[in-house]
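Our consortium's second objective concerns turning raw sequence data into structural hypotheses that experimental partners can test. To show how far this objective has progressed, the report includes one record in full. It was chosen at random from the queue rather than selected for favorable results. The single chain below, 155 residues long, was entered without modification.
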Amino acid sequence: LMQRQKTIFDRIGALIPGYAGYAERDSRRICDKALRSELAARMNKLEETLTKRMEKSLAEKQFGEMKLLEKLRKQLNTLGDKTRYTTYGNSSFIADTQIAQDDLEQLYQLDLDLSDLLDSIQNCTHSENWNDLETRLSVYDGKLTERNCFLSSKK
């Protein structure tokens, strides 16, 4: 169990510079914000990619595709904001001195799932697989909601 958590933690740490994890109370808020900021920044870049692709569709008079891309761009924008500005109300997760090992592992896994989903969103965007992109954005939204509910439930 400890080895598995370490592996999850190492993978997340590799994604975010200066990530110290949630084990220490003082670094929880900082690490949570760093993770969310990193994910949101990646989404902003993907949104720029979609905007450029929309311009190409417009130039080629592919209005149907342009409409779809605008819908996807808006979804990406909304998810980026949701990721960056999420709140947990009175979650004691951030404030508690000690966090249960299982809770810690579950949160690390949720963070890793979000990052992996964002990788697949990136792949769909670059390969211009718009149907899969729409599906993955929806799955990401569900996973983000699951993470926020998990944190909010720790009262």
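The partners drew two points from this record. The radius of gyration is 17 Å. DSSP finds five helices and no strands in the chain. Both points have been shared with the crystallography group to help prioritize constructs.
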